[in-house]
Amino acid sequence: MTPNASRSSGPSRRGSSGTSRRSFLASTAVATAAVAGGIPLLAACGGEQEGRKEGTTSGKEAEKLLPAFVASAVVTPDIPAKNGSAAGFTRAIPTAELRTSVPKALGSGGKLKIMSPFWGTPPKGDNPYYTAMNKAVGVEVTWQNQDGVTYDQKLGAVLASSDIPDVVVVPGWNLMGRIPSAVNAKFADLGPHLSGDKVKDYPNLAAVPTEAWQRGIFGGQLRGVPMPGSYVTDIAPLYRKDLFAKKGYSVPKSPDAFLSWAKEATDAKSKLWACDDMKWTAFNIFGVLSGSDKALWWNLEGDKLVNRIETEQYLEALEWTRKLYAAEVVHPDAVQGKAGGDAGNRFTAGEVLVYNQNISDWWGKTAEQRTQNPDFEMEAFDIFGADGGDPTLWAVQPANIFTFVSKKATEQQIKDFLALCNFCAAPYGTKEFMLTAYGVEGTDYTFEGGLPVKTQQGVNEVNGAYDYTGNPAPYIAYPDLPDVTRAMVEWQQRMGAFTRKSSFFGLTVTEPNRWSNLADDFEQLEDDVVRGRKKISDVQQAVSDWRNKGGDQLRDWYKKLLDDNGSAK
Predict the structure, then answer these.
(1) What pLDDT, on the 0 to 100 scale, is given for residue 25?
(2) CA nearest to 459, candidates 95, 75, 129
(3) CB-based contacts of 557-562 (< 8 A; 24+ apart in sequence)
(4) Which string of DSSP letters, residue by residue, matches 116-140?
């Protein structure tokens, strides 16, 4: 069995398969949330607070709410974070060398019910892992795990009721409809416990980056404990380094060079194609405002706020991707629209040489394939610019999953919740991390060749749940593949040097409901254009229609947020 990877720049600890919630996020369309009545609400920077506060909270107002930042000195990473990258850890830490970040249990022995998304079959509540966590934290947690695929439906129903669990996890992609206003109405203000120096009572939470905490401000109050992540683009162009070497190929350094190489490399008769769908990478190559959060598609250029669909870069990226399809260098399954996880399978099968996916696939696919093919080798190539020079990349949001505590919770329950979050936010290399990420030694995992490896019981039980109740600053740690760990961090560092933050970076924007579906058809239109079913002129017409149907009004709405409150950059 492949040794279990620890938490990385993505938001979850990974199972032995190498899948992650971050991979799921990368392939999931995330709609911007809407509130009834069209009242401007900039949730991460304030907004309407039960009718008492309109507008936003940024600048000096936000500074009053945010926790003080105190970097953790408990463990020193092998590769320090740089340019927005994760930190890197390349070795497993023996049990005898593990540090302590929580000297004593901070919980009172009280009880908490937590509702959270879960992918897979939830374990029984009295399993050894949960029992050990309850004892170590000092809080008895009862998990109300819900199917992650249909979590939005359950979340909406629960928040509309009067019976809300003590703690609720809300993924950013579920902040739709009336859920944002429910967040303001139903969840407690954590500011009295965390703002400023108060967070120092919870040292692991104090080490969470400020920009991640900024995303936890809802309705003018610090309500959510965020799951921090690197703001460097998490979509990487991954290529088969072993097959490149075998065929004598060099990594292309420009869009034109890539197309020329792709034509040379494709051999349909031998079932070999140069690439899979490359739209996500095209957006990065051509400097298109990107990210799953639609607020990041807006940026102030001069004195005008511009949406990505209005830019030449957007059209150029689609046109380049269309040329790849037209040249028949893209795998035919992608032509038929079979993307996502299938692209990774086509890649490992040797049917495509390049595909783009969440960077976590670098480790996941390598770990998976090394047990079958010891010569398998993959890497991510550096993103080049439209002219073959340096790229212009755009930062993704530094947190996209939040955990809240009910307003009905007692003062002690709030403290117990923060004790749990502080424990789960312990950094790699600590005893608390090992328990949270791997479970009970000898039961949930053992050491093999110096590496922690989950038992079948650990695979079944130590999977999700505690992922969402606290995470440390972004890091990547795959001790089974230290070279991959280093390469991933260094790729982030190089790409981070070319990464800019758009006007709404770090803010959670909830659009008025009358405009919330305005851009819903563009993703399908993009896919139709690159596959030759529609034309670039159809995009231009769609942009014109978008403006006339409310795009210009939405621009004015966003511009007013900036004019009145500024950005969080």
Answers:
(1) 27
(2) 129
(3) 557/40, 557/511, 557/512, 557/515, 558/295, 558/298, 558/305, 558/504, 558/509, 559/305, 560/40, 561/40, 561/42, 561/45, 561/56, 561/509, 562/300, 562/305, 562/503
(4) EEESS-PPPTT-HHHHHHHHHHT-E
pLDDT band at 497 (very low <50, low <70, confident <90, very high): very high
Taking the model in full, what pTM does it have?
Answer: 0.89
Tallying the residues shown for the chain, one arrives at: 569
Q: Which of 179, 190, 182 is nearest to 226 (CA)?
A: 190
Question: Does residue 561 sit in helix, strand or coil?
Answer: helix
Judge whether 509 and 295 are in contact, CB under 8 Å: yes
Cα gap 400→418, rounded to integer Å: 19
**How far, in Å, CA of 435 to CA of 162, rounded?**
34
Phi/psi of residue 511, nearest 5 degrees:
-75, 150
312-338 CB burial, b ≥16 within 10 A, e <16: ebbbbbbbbbbbbbeeebbbebbbeeb
Average pLDDT over residues 467-473: 93
Could you give the count of Cα atoms lying within 13 Å of 314 in the half-sphere of its Cβ? 19
Angle at which helices 341-348 and 360-370 cross, to 10°: 40
By the 8 A CB rule, do 507 and 295 touch? yes
Which residues are bridge partners to 112 per DSSP?
Answer: 141
SS3 at position 421: helix
**Three-state SS at 491:** helix
Closest of 506, 448, 517, 451 to residue 478, by C-alpha: 451
Tens of pLDDT along 353-397? 999 999 999 999 999 999 899 999 999 999 999 999 999 999 999
**Low-confidence winner among 386-395, 431-440, 554-563 (lowest mean pLDDT):** 554-563
- Asked if 391 contacts 285 with a C-beta cutoff of 8 angstroms, the reply is yes
Instruction: Determine how many CB atoms are found less than 10 A away from the CB of residue 94.
Output: 10
